[in-house]
Amino acid sequence: MKTVFSGIQPTGELHVGNYIGAIHNWVKMQDQYRCIYCVVDYHAITQDYPVKEMKSRVHDMALDILALGVDPDRAILFVQSAVPEHTELAWVLSAVTGHGDLERMTQFKDKSVNQSENINAGLFSYPVLQAADILLYKAELVPVGADQVQHLELARRIGRSFNNRWGKVFPECEPKLTETPKVLGLDGKQKMSKSLGNHIPLSAIEDKPLRKLLGRMVTDEKRVTREDPGDPDVCNVFSFHKIFSTDDDRAWVREGCTTAGIGCVDCKGRLVGRMIEHFADYRERRAALVANPARVDEILAAGADKARAIAQRTMAEVRQKLGLWRSP
Ligand code: TRP
To answer: For residue 41, how far is the Cα from the chain centroid?
Structure first.
């Protein structure tokens, strides 16, 4: 059975873009593979964050992942810093990672612009730690969003370099994208992201807050008044209908929008209902976990024990390949 690994930063809460872009596959893949999922707190420290909030952000992220249907009986869920082998392997891998390769990472270049006052070495070697996350478990499939494909190409390259230099330990890994690997935000222009503030948090998928958020969502910009016909194919709201609604809904929107028979408010209203339906199980599981926060910690602790056992085996193999000293 192939191993699947993926990680997500503890931003506090998941949004629709995370779910549609990646986490949806985390849930689906548990039926078929050995799945290992991780909240990557050591990655998160490369950017500024409110230190007092870190614990709750990790907790809330794990809670959301479980509420979406990741099942601790079938998948391992844990926190990166609870398994120190991640950082240990990252150091080893940094010795087979090209400086030039890291310089080419677009995410590094973007972050260097966005946080120009804090371009730290961790930000630069971020993809090495990511490669370590994956290779530590000898994972072959990595469900991620489109923005991570470049990092995964590098992870594959790093694994190969290790194997060439020290002998074969790691398999090849590849990204597993969802049907919609890139989801645009409320602005309809940029990728949905919490830091851009154009996101729909999963926790906001209730009638009132969702109506309010979708009210802000940019539609076909050529459709200025209610009387103008619109073009669903350039409308971000319609791209959400493609994910959450039925064929009948979509036909209704296409007909109504292109003839100015319905307004954007009508179209958004239909979407609100469909999204609430889609996330009904999530809301129920979420409420149960919110009422029992100790359960989340229990799951994370048990997950870390399982992950650590695998990680320690890989590191023993790595140390042996490297020819390191070992207590006789
Ligand atoms: N860099 C990923 C992101 O920002 C998160 C991540 C860290 C990850 N380690 C990983 C994803 C390992 C997949 C596999 O989304």
So the answer is: 13
Percent of the chain with pLDDT over 90: 96
Q: How far is CA 83 from the centre of its chain?
A: 20
Question: Over 90: is that where the pLDDT of 328 sits?
Answer: no
Provide the pLDDT for residue 3: 98
Residue 12 has pLDDT above 90, yes or no: no
Enzyme catalytic residues: 111, 191, 194
Question: Is residue 256 over pLDDT 90?
Answer: yes
Q: What is the DSSP letter of 179?
A: S
- The mean pLDDT value for 262-270 works out to 97
User: To test ligand 1's pocket by mutation, which of 15, 37, 43 has the most ligand atoms within 8 angstroms of CB?
Assistant: 43
User: Are 127 and 154 within 8 A, CB to CB?
Assistant: yes
CATH number of this structure's domain 3-183+292-322, picked from the four choices 3.90.180.10, 3.50.50.60, 3.40.50.620, 3.40.630.30 = 3.40.50.620
Per-residue pLDDT tens over the stretch 17-45:
999 999 999 999 999 999 999 999 999 99
Q: What is the DSSP letter of 192?
A: P
Residue 289, phi then psi, degrees to nearest 5 = -75, -35
Arithmetic mean of pLDDT, 293-318? 98
Q: Among 148, 176, 183, 193, say which to mutate for ligand 1: greatest number of ligand atoms within 8 Å of CB.
A: 148
Mean predicted confidence (pLDDT) in 266-294: 97
**How many whole angstroms from 262 Cα to the centroid of ligand 1?**
41
Please, where in the chain does CATH 3.40.50.620 lie? Answer: 3-183+292-322
| Ligand 1 centroid, distance to 117 Cα (angstroms) | 23
Taking the centre of ligand 1 as the mean of its atom positions, its distance from the CA of residue 137, in whole angstroms, is 14
Q: What does the radius of gyration of the chain's CA atoms come to, in whole angstroms? A: 22
pLDDT at 13 over 90: no
Tokens of 202: 């999963």
Decide: 7 in ligand 1 pocket, CB within 6 A. Answer: yes
Domain with CATH 1.10.240.10 in the chain: 206-278
Looking from the CA of residue 22, the nearest atom of ligand 1 is: 15
Atom of ligand 1 nearest to the CA of 145: 15
Q: Does domain 206-278 have CATH number 1.10.240.10?
A: yes
Measured distance CA(77)–CA(8) in Å, rounded: 11
